[in-house]
């Protein structure tokens, strides 16, 4: 039952995973509107707007009413406005986190010292560095950098003893805006390790596929 619930939530999230659909929902939240009006307000063609609205209708975000040849859309019952507000708040929080990350990179460069891909490759070839993937285990299983070990950031403090103290540790995450690698470097240094991070993360590494290496 829990898996089915999570699958339903994932289906809803996928429906919302498009900027045009979020924009359409924002417009509809102000009141019932016809497809033509929504297309104009969102700067979409009527056909494109209709396609996105059908996705929203199938997953229960909107309902329709026909008046002659015109189709009007309104929000379905439920906490949909609250969901939109929560998403907006999360986006604002993430933007603030990115600003903090950029600020830290200027005020504390020694904490955010990065390693280039070229140097990392050389260090991996001579086995002089430990490559640490701090993403969740599920993401690690889908694909990771060659030779990496996985300790999710949430478990790092409790599992520092699994890392070789004599080697420098290079932490990486999803990409430049993932703060786990930055926080991992801070935790590693506080634990007495020499540590840097690979800023580009897994996103910019060639040869990574959805099915791993």
Automatic annotation (TrEMBL):
<feature type="domain" description="Rhodanese">
    <location>
        <begin position="125"/>
        <end position="209"/>
    </location>
</feature>
<dbReference type="InterPro" id="IPR001763">
    <property type="entry name" value="Rhodanese-like_dom"/>
</dbReference>
<protein>
    <submittedName>
        <fullName>Metalloregulator ArsR/SmtB family transcription factor</fullName>
    </submittedName>
</protein>
<dbReference type="InterPro" id="IPR036390">
    <property type="entry name" value="WH_DNA-bd_sf"/>
</dbReference>
<dbReference type="InterPro" id="IPR011991">
    <property type="entry name" value="ArsR-like_HTH"/>
</dbReference>
<feature type="domain" description="HTH arsR-type">
    <location>
        <begin position="1"/>
        <end position="95"/>
    </location>
</feature>
<dbReference type="Pfam" id="PF00581">
    <property type="entry name" value="Rhodanese"/>
</dbReference>
<dbReference type="InterPro" id="IPR036388">
    <property type="entry name" value="WH-like_DNA-bd_sf"/>
</dbReference>
<dbReference type="Pfam" id="PF12840">
    <property type="entry name" value="HTH_20"/>
</dbReference>
<dbReference type="InterPro" id="IPR050229">
    <property type="entry name" value="GlpE_sulfurtransferase"/>
</dbReference>
<dbReference type="InterPro" id="IPR001845">
    <property type="entry name" value="HTH_ArsR_DNA-bd_dom"/>
</dbReference>
<dbReference type="InterPro" id="IPR036873">
    <property type="entry name" value="Rhodanese-like_dom_sf"/>
</dbReference>
<dbReference type="InterPro" id="IPR001307">
    <property type="entry name" value="Thiosulphate_STrfase_CS"/>
</dbReference>
């Amino acid at each position: 039952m829990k898996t089915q619930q999570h699958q339903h939530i994932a289906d809803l999230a996928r429906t919302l995973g498009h900027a045009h659909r979020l924009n359409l929902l924002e417009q509809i939240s102000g009141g019932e509107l016809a497809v033509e009006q929504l297309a104009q307000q969102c700067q979409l063609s009527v056909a494109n707007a209709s396609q996105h609205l059908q996705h929203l209708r199938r997953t229960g975000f909107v309902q329709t009413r026909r008046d002659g040849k015109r189709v009007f859309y309104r929000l379905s019952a439920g906490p949909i406005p609250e969901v939109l507000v929560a998403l907006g708040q999360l986006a604002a929080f993430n933007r603030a986190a990115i600003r903090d990350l950029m600020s830290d990179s200027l005020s504390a460069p020694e904490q955010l010292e990065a390693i280039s891909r070229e140097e990392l490759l050389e260090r991996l070839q001579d086995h002089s560095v430990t490559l640490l993937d701090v993403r969740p285990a599920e993401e690690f299983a889908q694909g990771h950098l060659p030779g990496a070990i996985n300790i999710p950031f949430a478990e790092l403090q409790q599992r520092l003893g699994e890392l070789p103290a004599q080697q420098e540790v290079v932490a990486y995450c999803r990409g430049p805006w993932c703060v786990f690698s930055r926080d991992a470097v801070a935790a590693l240094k506080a634990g007495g390790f020499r540590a840097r991070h690979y800023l580009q993360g897994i996103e910019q590494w060639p040869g990574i596929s959805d099915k791993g290496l």
